[in-house]
Amino acid sequence: MNFVDIQFLLSVHSLSQLPEPSLPEIAFAGRSNVGKSSLMNTLVGRKSLVKVSGRPGKTQGLNFFEVAGKVYLVDLPGYGYAKVAKGMQDNWQTLITSYLESRKTLCCVVVIIDLRHEAKEYDTQLINWLRQKNIPFLPVYTKMDKLSGNERVKNARILDVGHAIDPGQRILFSAVTGQGKEELERALASFSKVD
């Protein structure tokens, strides 16, 4: 699937604003500042389609992007950032949870995890919740360019064990070098059943 023909559709702040469930949807989730925007920009071959921010908590709605009239990519607000007001965090959580649980056209949640760190509680909670709800997900370990080959292998193994992930079910990715991009494209095409 070619992700280059993409345009921003809308930002959703309540379930009533969701677009018609006419296309398959792939959601992107991750802790604040994990490299979610950079991953999405690399995937679609643009530098700034998805706004990259040094300030965690920048994404505040569900941002829908339409790819070639075939699939929606949905950028979810980052989680686990304490400096965002508690009320706002609760609102995001309710919106995200309701969206993930109820959206019939959601075919995959890409869970983005920083390869440099050990398993984090928020990521584990999300992965376990997705498993419990039978929502398909794809773990992607980002920032692999920041580690040597041996460190990548060791850290990936630690994350696999920490999140009970089979190595064949996740992707190592770098927004800097583009490594993992083709593998990610193939995986997303198979989840969404779009060529």
Textual characterization of the structure:
The chain has 195 residues and is of the alpha/beta class. It has a single domain (6-192), classed as Rossmann fold (3-Layer(aba) Sandwich). It is 33% helix and 21% strand. It is built from five helices and seven strands. The chain has helices spanning 36-44, 86-102, 121-132, 149-163, 181-192, and strands spanning 6-12, 25-30, 62-67, 71-75, 106-114, 137-142, 171-172. A seven-stranded mixed sheet has the order 1-3-4-2-5-6-7, with helices on both faces. Helix 4 links the parallel strand 6 (137-142) and strand 7 (171-172). The longest helix has 17 residues, at 86-102. It starts with 5 loop residues before the first strand and ends with a helix. 34% of the residues are buried.
